[in-house]
Fold isochorismate synthase.
Amino acid sequence: MFTDANTCSTVSGDSGNGSAYQRPSAIDLLYRYGVDSSIFLGTPERTLLGRGVRLRLKRGPGESTATALQQLFTDLQRNGDSEAILVGAIPFAPDAQPVLFIPDQLDVAGPLGRHTALKPNQARRGTATEEQPAQAVYAQRVQQALDLIRHTALKKVVLSRMLEIRSERDIDQSMVLRNLAARNIGGYTFAVDLPTPSAGVRRLVGASPELLLQRMGGQLLANPIAGTAPRSSDPGEDLARSRKLLHSAKDRQEHALVVEAVAETLRPYCRNLHVPPVPELLATNRVWHLSTRIRAELTKHAPASYALALALHPTPAVCGEPRDLAARAIHTLEDFDRGLFTGLVGWCDAKGDGAWAVTIRCAEIEANRATLYAGAGIVADSDPWQEVAETSAKFQTLLDAIQGGVA
Ligand SMILES: C=C(O[C@@H]1C=C(C(=O)O)C=C[C@H]1O)C(=O)O
């Protein structure tokens, strides 16, 4: 159904009316996002707005998400439904239930781009915040991770923090999404409706700079990101920090571990795998990153986007290296369940196309509460308090969108 990225088409779940074409723009879709929306996804290629849930993916006992998805697309095709687009989020832990569904109705438009109508709103300040763990405890955990790196085969582990905000009034989820979209042009902006036992609306909202994997026809793109420095409001200092990051041996090592792992996993499915020898800088509103854009042509029998993405997940950008030791360290050193944070968010279709971003710079929002997440990669030369500063800067992307603040 994605024939022209600059026009918009509607894919309706009601098979009798599936041919209804409209032409709202990406900005229309963003402003239409509301209580009846089940998903918004803005990527550098296109914008998706979904309403309702026609079909939710349910994994059988012991079944992997990749197997369940393959079965679902086989069943859909057997029923003559080859246009369906599946959207949603996959958690960090491989055995946790994903939130994946085919919307009742899905509107598709081109990318949001730099639209003058996108002006961040000022919002109410949060009234109470609670960190988990406290900054000093997080610094201690980083020190414990450094001890593990010194004494075991662990090379890198990503440790995260949680920040809970409680506001006097309900947080306007649509406004948070619009603020994120206005400040994070070129990234992956998302809002996913989450099942909740309460009558309220609980959503995962965020703006990720990191593309785990995109497959369009035979073309593959992956954009691993690792190595971070907080930005400065002073332009000279900001530039100096970006240059320091680009030449930092510690950050280059942290980055290289991710690029190597991604390239090695993809190599068997690729021809002409192009891995740039040095990373480039990528700026978000609050941090500088080291970024590498890996491109390839896929071989004829390469798996679908979701299968490739799940083969990569979790990369050392969000878990560590080696993966099993890092996962164990995360289990010991983090005292909350990551849930969907550091998982995947995106879309895929029956043809095997799709795009999956890494679920970072995000929060779960329900009523007057928001739970924010941020992590940082720890390698041998990491400094505990610099990792505190890095995770604080990462929280700021969501804090800006929820509380207002500088654009
Ligand atoms: C885990 C996060 O980010 C990841 C870790 C990074 C790092 O350690 O430099 C950079 C980008 C992401 O791959 C996060 O933003 O919460």
